[in-house]
Specification:
Length: about 200
C-alpha cells in the first residue's frame, strides 16, 4: 500500500477493478462503501443480482433485515462516514445450482487489507455470514457457536448469521439471538458511531 493512499483514491481503484471479469457472468461491478471516518465495518458475502443491477449495497430484503438487527436507519447505513460496507466479494458472483455462487476469492486478497488500513482505527466490525467468519473468526467452530459466543467475543467484533430468508428457521431455533444478542449488538453499534470505547 502506498503511504499516500486515501480512501477516495482506493475506492476509485476498486470500482475500476476487472480482475475477475472473465469469471463473472454478469460482468464486473464492484459494490463497496467506505471512508476514512467509517467506525462500523460490515463484512458481508457478495452483492445479490439486485444489488448488481442498482449498484446500491444491501439493497434487498437481506439489507432490510440487517438494518433492523443493527438499529441503523437507511440514512445512517448508507453514510460512508459512519458505515463501511466491505463484502468478501465485491461483485455479484453469478447464479449456481442452489443459489448465488460463493464470493470470488480474489477480492479479499487484493483489497481487504488496504481498505482496513484507511479506516478509523477504533471501529466495530460485524462478520455477517459464513464466508466472512471463516476469514476473520475461528473457522474451527460452527456458525451457531461463533454467534452465540457474543458475550465473550473479542472486543470490536460480532459474528452474525446471514440475514437472508434462509436464516429464518435458524432464528426460530435460536430465540436468544433476538432476545439477547440483538439488544447488545444495537448498543455496540451506537457506541461505535458515537466513538465511545467499545465494550467486550
Amino acid at each position: 500500500m502506498a503511504a499516500t493512499e486515501t480512501a477516495t483514491s482506493l475506492l476509485e481503484e476498486i470500482r475500476g477493478c476487472k480482475v475477475c471479469a472473465s469469471a463473472l457472468s454478469a460482468g464486473p461491478r464492484p459494490v463497496v462503501q467506505f471512508s476514512d471516518a467509517s467506525r462500523l465495518v460490515i463484512v458481508g458475502q457478495a452483492p445479490s443480482s439486485r444489488v448488481h443491477q442498482t449498484g446500491v449495497p444491501w439493497n434487498d430484503a437481506s439489507g432490510e433485515r440487517l438494518r433492523q438487527w443493527t438499529g441503523l436507519t437507511a440514512q445512517e447505513f448508507y453514510d460512508p462516514d459512519k458505515v463501511a460496507l466491505m463484502p468478501m466479494g465485491f461483485c455479484y458472483p453469478g447464479r449456481g445450482k442452489s443459489g448465488d455462487l460463493p464470493p470470488r476469492p480474489e477480492c479479499a486478497r487484493l483489497w481487504h487489507e488496504r481498505v482496513l488500513a484507511v479506516l478509523a482505527k477504533r471501529r466495530l466490525t460485524l462478520l455477517v455470514g459464513f464466508h466472512a467468519q471463516v476469514r476473520y473468526a475461528d473457522r474451527r467452530r460452527t456458525l451457531t457457536d461463533r454467534v452465540k459466543d457474543f458475550r465473550s467475543r473479542e472486543p470490536g467484533f460480532f459474528s452474525l448469521p446471514h440475514p437472508s430468508w434462509r436464516g429464518t428457521l435458524w432464528m426460530k431455533r435460536n430465540s436468544w439471538f433476538a432476545s439477547e444478542l440483538l439488544p447488545t449488538l444495537r448498543a455496540a453499534v451506537r457506541d461505535a458511531l458515537e466513538d465511545r470505547p467499545l465494550q467486550p
